[in-house]
Amino acid sequence: MNRTKRWYILLTGLTVLVFSLALLSYIQDRWQIPASSVLKVFNLSWDEHTSGEYTILVDEQGQVLDMMARRVYLNDEFIAADNWRYRVIRIEGNRAICHKLKLEQVSFSEAELTALADTEIPVQGRGNQTIGLYYTHDGESYVPTEGTENIPGKGGILRVGSVFAEKLRNLGLNIIDDKTSHAPHDDAAYRRSRRTAISLIKQGAAAIFDVHRDGVPDPDFYRQVINNQKVTKVRLVVGRQNQNMNSNLDYAKRIKAVADQRYPGLIQGIFIGSGSFNQDLSPRSMLLEVGTHTNSREEAERGVKLFADIVPPVLGSVSRPAAAQTASSSADWTSVLLIILAFAIGAGAYLFISAGSWDKALARLKQFSSIEWVNLMGWSRTGKQKFLGLLVRQSKRSQPGPLKTERSRDKERNGNAGNK
């Protein structure tokens, strides 16, 4: 094979690979299949905060709806503080244009909301009341207090989490506050924190919270006054690419419903973003963003104390225990089949292009399934030829010759005599 043809085949193969991945991405997005099952195979589902950058979400008239220091993708959605739901339909630079979908309904009736929000929680006797806290980005800090936005392994977010844990304990809950460091703050941090989340679930946590802060530059965006004190608002983040998405979202809506009743304005909204954030591990896994880096840590601590009041009634309203997802869901199997389908199409296209016709492609495939199988078993070329020669000789020996009759033997003798 000359060099030109080799380069041609190589470029063709790369083109087909890109086509296959694009096809897979299109199918996943078109059918809205939870892609934690698809993208985690390629290790692409860990995108998160972007340092020094933020996205402004606007409606189709250009009015600012929200902003956040995280990557925003097409078809991401969010439920605003007023419960209107939006979907990202276009991205222009750092602006995400959103289409208004519908007014979301909370999960409780008005009577249930009032009863839950007014209950001063004796939580004992309600089953498993263990909460797990962990910190994927444990370096996140609050500049007015710490003087910097990131202190790897020792960020101000850990202090905010400690205040959260203490308030929950005072409310009668069992708390596992795991401060394992997952530094550095990069896209692989969620892989590292996944082990911590699994550990919390194995220790019996009925719900787990991954505690963060946002990175938008305007401190007033997250600042709120509740009960005559300055606090930071809290954003709830749900990963839309995991098989628990509907359960996670329902859980977030329940939290917001009770918070809106007890502390109006505390919840910034619910962002339903690309990624899984390890929420495939539990139907009651939630990512929190407590203020932003330009708020003081004291404001964040006051905000998370109020948020803690919301957790026990919501946890008590959900009867099913949280459990790690060990069995494959139908979405997982669908994703596996899609991967196989995409690569089968790509491989078929590559084989056709490199062979030049379907007949030659099929012949090459048959050759691979016979002779190349021997190579796959690790045999050398010489060994393979000896093996095939042995098979041919054995086949000839095993074939019986034609039976010689008395007439055929006479003809043979006469022929031999004539030759003499």
What tags apply to this protein structure?
420 residues; alpha/beta; Aminopeptidase; eleven-stranded mixed beta sheet; two-stranded antiparallel ribbon
**Rg of Cα set:** 32 Å
Architecture (CATH level 2) name of the domain at 97-317: 3-Layer(aba) Sandwich
Inertia-based shape: elongated
* N- and C-termini, Cα separation: 55 Å
* CATH topology category name of the domain at 97-317: Aminopeptidase
Low-confidence stretches: 28-47, 120-125, 319-333
The CATH fourth-level homologous superfamily of the domain at 97-317:
Zn-dependent exopeptidases
Total beta-strand segments: 13
Biggest sheet: strands side by side, in what order?
2-1-5-4-3-12-11-13-8-6-7
**CATH C-level name of the domain at 97-317:** Alpha Beta
Question: What's the gist of this structure?
Answer:
It contains 13 helices and 13 strands. With 420 residues, it is an alpha/beta fold. It has an 11-stranded mixed β-sheet with strand order 2-1-5-4-3-12-11-13-8-6-7, sandwiched between helices. The chain has a two-stranded antiparallel sheet with strand order 9-10.
